[in-house]
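Students often ask why inverse folding is considered easier than folding. One informal answer: many sequences map to the same fold, so there is more than one right answer. In these notes we will look at a single instance of the problem. The structure comes first.
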């Protein structure tokens, strides 16, 4: 290499290095912005908590004070108008404490402390004439011992209240295990002497996920539960 060529290489080298540094910095900034954007999105549990608060604020009807403690069916997940989920069909002044993914077992949901027993005390800060507990589909993969323990905790929380338990329907996505949970809850309700409303025989319409109800499905489910409540002494 001649002296002129050597100096030319030295001139070009800083320019090349500078370009590489700029490219690396730009790439790093892009990654950081992407991570920041992802981090700013609410988590699944945060979304469910927000949906739960919104549904709780949508009190419907008048008369007998009914509190519904339930899962995504009560919360209205998948509906354009969650306030029209099945509890809105009940006759009375209805409040809903629904949380998607929750169940009787403590770990039915990945979200912390959202089982029915966990949420019942807060829901009962406002008095109710009747407490309707609806669920079981999210307990499909939980050990029987955990469902029993959660049910026992719930009954302790609801001691002194008038309680009715509404079991899981045979949603196609979980029909086989739902039948087992239904049988388990039937026995638990009898043990704790609370009325049990089985819904496994209902023909309902479902969203494409084969787990959540369509608006028509909610109406049919709610009307059925309302009729069964009317038959209770």
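Output (designed amino acids):
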């Amino acid at each position: 290499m001649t002296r002129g060529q050597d100096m030319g290489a030295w001139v070009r080298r800083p320019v090349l290095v500078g370009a590489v540094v700029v490219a690396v910095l730009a790439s790093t900034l892009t990654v950081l912005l992407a991570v920041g954007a992802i981090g700013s999105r609410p988590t699944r549990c945060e979304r469910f908590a927000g949906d739960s608060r919104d549904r709780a604020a949508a009190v419907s009807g008048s008369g007998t004070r009914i509190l519904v403690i339930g899962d995504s069916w009560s919360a209205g997940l998948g509906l354009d108008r969650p306030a029209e989920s099945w509890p809105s069909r009940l006759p009375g002044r209805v409040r809903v404490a629904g949380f998607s993914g929750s169940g009787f077992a403590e770990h039915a949901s990945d979200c912390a402390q959202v089982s029915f027993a966990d949420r019942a005390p807060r829901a009962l800060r406002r008095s109710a004439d009747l407490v309707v507990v609806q669920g079981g589909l999210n307990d499909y993969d939980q050990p029987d011992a955990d469902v029993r323990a959660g049910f026992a905790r719930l009954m302790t929380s609801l001691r002194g209240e008038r309680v009715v338990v509404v079991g899981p329907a045979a949603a196609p996505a979980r029909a086989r295990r739902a039948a087992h949970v239904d049988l388990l809850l039937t026995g638990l309700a009898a043990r704790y002497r609370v009325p049990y409303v089985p819904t496994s025989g209902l023909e309902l319409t479902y969203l494409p996920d084969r787990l959540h109800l369509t608006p028509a499905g909610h109406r049919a489910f709610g009307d059925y539960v309302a009729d069964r409540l009317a038959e209770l002494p």
